[in-house]
Write a sequence for this structure.
C-alpha cells in the first residue's frame, strides 16, 4: 500500500506561527508563514509497481 506522510512537526510549527500572527493582528497579506507543505510519498513493498516487475520476469 502506498501512502503519503505529512510532516507533523512542520504542521505544528506552522500552526503555532499562525496563532502568534493572529494574536499580533498581522494581516493575512503580510503573513510570513509559508502555507504549502510538500508531502512525502511512501511506496510500500505491497504495491503493484514492485510486484509487477518481478512477475513479468517469470
Amino acid at each position: 500500500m502506498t501512502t503519503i506522510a505529512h510532516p507533523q512537526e512542520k504542521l505544528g510549527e506552522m500552526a503555532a506561527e499562525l496563532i502568534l500572527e493572529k494574536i499580533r493582528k498581522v494581516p493575512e497579506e503580510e503573513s510570513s508563514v509559508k502555507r504549502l507543505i510538500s508531502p512525502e510519498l511512501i511506496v510500500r513493498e505491497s504495491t503493484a509497481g514492485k510486484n509487477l516487475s518481478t512477475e513479468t520476469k517469470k
In short: Strands lie at 3-5, 40-42. DSSP finds two helices and two strands in the chain. Helices lie at 8-23, 48-56. The mean pLDDT is 82.
